[in-house]
Amino acid sequence: MNIIERINTRRSTRSFKDQEVDSNTIHELITLGTKAATGSYGQPWGFVVITDKGEIKSLSDEIKKYLVENIADYPYFKQYENWLKDENFSVFYGAPCVIVIYGDTSSHWCTYDCSLAAGNIMLSAKEFGLGTCWIGFAECICSTPEFKSKHNVPDSYKLVSTMIAGYPDEKQKNQKPPRRKPALIFYEK
Fold this sequence. Notes:
Elements: H1 3-9, H2 23-33, E1 45-50, H3 53-69, H4 81-85, E2 97-104, H5 110-125, E3 131-134, H6 139-142, H7 145-150, E4 157-166, H8 170-173
Antiparallel strand pairs: 1-2, 2-4, 3-4
Helix pairs in contact: 2-5
């Protein structure tokens, strides 16, 4: 598959097979992520990978509890309040792998650089038959000093992205994502 096909067929995956992603594949995805362009060649990224099902479930439960208790501080998540209250809902959608990307704040461009790394990972995942999804719910916990300390993330690193990866179940595997036209395109001559 060429890059244009990959971009045109990439979609957020929220339904996965109960199948682990092997550590070599995860390592390759992260390596491909780090091929992204960086400002001043800073390469400010750091990664935490969680594949333990118990830890992923515990993290999901902690995120849901926190967001429900503090929903007023997250008005953009209010529309998902019923999901967050559902004991069967996982903010990680049953994915077997969570990849958390942090940026070293000593680089002014760390947010951009790490977002580009996340994009590389998301596009590369299709090569391995994997689906991915950026998980906004996780920022409330994955950015805390407690979480960062538990996973040996230096204080100078800030959360940029939390994403999930896994093998899509059959109902999502070949669906094409619908897209809107760009809101504004302006060409100056």
